Amino acid sequence: MVYRCIRIFTVILGCFSTWTQADEFAVEFSGFASLAVSYSDDPDIDFRSNYLNDEKAGWSIDRDSILGGQVNISLAQEWDSVVQVVLQDREIKDFSNYLELAFVRYRPNRNWSVRGGRINSDMYLLSEYPSVGYAYLWARPPHEHYAFASTVSHYDGFDVEYSSDVNEGYLRVKLAAAQTEPKLGALNQDFSIKFNNILTLSTTYVKDAWTFRASTSKADIREFKSDQFSSLINALNAIPPSLWSQAADYAQGFDAKNKNINYSALGLAYDNFDWLFQAEIGTVNSDWLISPSNYTGYVSLGYRIGELTYFASLSVAKNKNAKPQVAPPELPSYLPEEIRLATLQLVEGTDIASKRAIVDQYSFNIGAKWYFSNNLVIKAQIDHFVLQPIGGGLWDMAAQTDVASKHQINLFSLSGSVVF
Amino acid sequence: MVVNKENDIKTLSKREVIDIYMGRYLTFPNGANAQPLDLPAQSSLKNDFYLKLVNQDERKINAYWARLLFSGRAKPPEAVESVDDALKKIKISEFSIAYIPESELTDAVKVVYRLNEN
Asked: Is there a domain that residue A17 lies in?
């Protein structure tokens, strides 16, 4: 899909370069970067800043380091285009995972705009610019809330936006229709998920120092390409119900067919001269075992003294449904030993797979952002994560790690972020 | 706030100046293109302008524009080298708008808003 969009985009650009007058056509380059060194203190549990990035324990210089380039192209008075590529530590090194924006926009008048191509989502307060460390307070967007958002932070389609002054404030309403196929990796396996028929409705209202956002989104899960899960589903479907009656239910639960996912979120930010307050809550509803339903949210407070802004945050992600417990079936005594063992292995594999996606964690962080110069900010941050038993779905755990136990992890980060 | 004398706009409210300088709209209220100009970075004129307009200093404005630029929403105002440079651009461009100190006001441009107004 993305390549088809790029081809269409290139053709449109080519047409405009001949249609438009020379003084209307302009190309401008800009960029942003973060160089970040961080240390995660549990060697058996790897941290990743979002679902698309590689997971690591211990010291890392590429966990949160990012280099982004953007070109803004003015095509005509009402037409423009933006292309943005962001290099970061993606688990799967596919070009589509690095292309953030590639859209053409038409603004027929002051209040309306329409974009087509690869567009970004504005579901959450930071979801339009999660990679631009210079633009926000923390070393990275709050993990519990934004790790989920990465898979649908951009998609291929179109959106229509209306903006207007309302009651001394500024109101923006946007409707997007799109699809996306993020390429992910976990447990040394590559997989991709195709989200079809994504519909996102968001509204943002800005008045004085306050920003309020509400959004909702739905998507159909169409294709889930994973050798590991395909094998598991096939094995579960091959088990006779007389041996394990729940096997077919688990196969259906893991299968992406006819599954859908819904996101909704509320965000509030207050940013006056010295005080910064930001909070978001979100809910994910899904009947797919690989992406179970969750509540997420965070609260953050910052206070500026001179060139330094000190901050503290609390973030939470909590599973909505009861944590699964796959009960081993009572196998008949006449069963041959190898079939009995294979069945019990499958039960164990099903138990692990159904538990590994569950997210139940919270974290505290404190830190400071130092406005070093006009283009450079330096940040230091300490996060303390608490992973509840069977709640480490955002992390990659070594095989010997007991997922049924509580884990506590500290993450230290020091970064410099620039814009150019 | 000054514009070209040929610009149809006669006056702007503070809210309309905020709309243009904070990238909410790319046009004047009448729909004509608006090209806001910014005085040099780290100048007291620029800092004072944003403090009076939106109670934000240059640091916060820079972060704000990083958000708008890299979310693909809008481009920041065009930076000029001096008040003289701003006045020259206003004289030749019907679309430009700039903030200048009252002491440097000339008859060659039209005043559409004064920052000490409400």
From this structure: no
CB contact under 8 A, A132 and B66: yes
Range of the domain at B76: 2-111
Residue A367 located in a structural domain: yes
Convert the pLDDT of each residue in A365-408 to its tens digit.
999 999 999 899 999 999 999 999 999 999 988 888 888 899 99
- Residues A135 and B66: beta-carbon distance below 8 Å: yes
Query: Do A165 and B57 make contact, defined as CB atoms within 8 angstroms?
Result: no
pLDDT digits 0-9 by tens, A106-116: 999 999 999 99
Tokens linked to B72: 């693909």
Residues of B in contact with A371 (CB under 8 A): 59
Residue A48 inside a domain? The answer is yes
A411 within 8 A of A383, measured Cβ to Cβ: yes
Q: Where are the alpha helices (DSSP H) in A161-277?
A: 227-238, 247-254
For chain B, what's the residue count? 118
pLDDT at position A186, please?
A: 67
| Contact call for A129 and B59, based on CB within 8 A | no
Lowest mean pLDDT among A39-48, A219-228, B48-57: A219-228
**B56 to chain A: which residues are within 8 Å by CB?**
273
Within a domain: B51: yes
Q: What residues does A36 pair with on adjacent strands?
A: A415
Percent of chain A predicted with pLDDT > 90:
70
Residue A95: inside a domain:
no
Chain A hits for B70, CB-CB cut-off 8 Å, are 30, 32, 68, 70, 84, 129, 131-132, 135, 419
Nearest to A390 by CA among A408, A375, A402, A378: A402
ipTM of the complex: 0.92
Alpha carbons A367 and A307: distance in angstroms, whole number = 14
Is B58 within 8 Å of A273 when comparing Cβ atoms?
no
Chain A: residue nearest B22 by CA? A170
H or E segment to which residue A339 belongs: helix A337-356
Q: Is residue B118 part of a domain?
A: no
Q: State the virtual CA torsion across A342, A343, A347, A352 in degrees, nearest 10.
A: 10
Report how many domains make up chain A: 1
Compare CB distances from B24 to A82, A107, A163 and report the shortest one's residue.
Answer: A163
Q: What is the pLDDT of residues B33-68, one digit of tens each?
A: 999 999 999 899 999 999 999 999 999 999 999 999
Find the CB nearest A32 among B15, B55, B66.
B66
Identify the burial level of B102 via C-beta atoms within 10 angstroms of its C-beta, where 0-12 means exposed, 13-18 middle and 19 or more buried.
exposed
Q: How many domains does chain B have?
A: 1
Q: How far apart (Å, rounded) are the C-alpha atoms in residues B20 and B6? A: 19
Which residue in A250, A231, A387 sits closest to A324, CA to CA?
A: A250
Nearest Cα residue in chain A from B30: A110
Q: Which of A68, A122, A168 sits opposite B70 (nearest CB)?
A: A68
Query: Smallest Cα–Cα separation from A30: which of A75, A61, A59, A73?
Result: A73
**Helix, coil or strand: residue B88:** helix
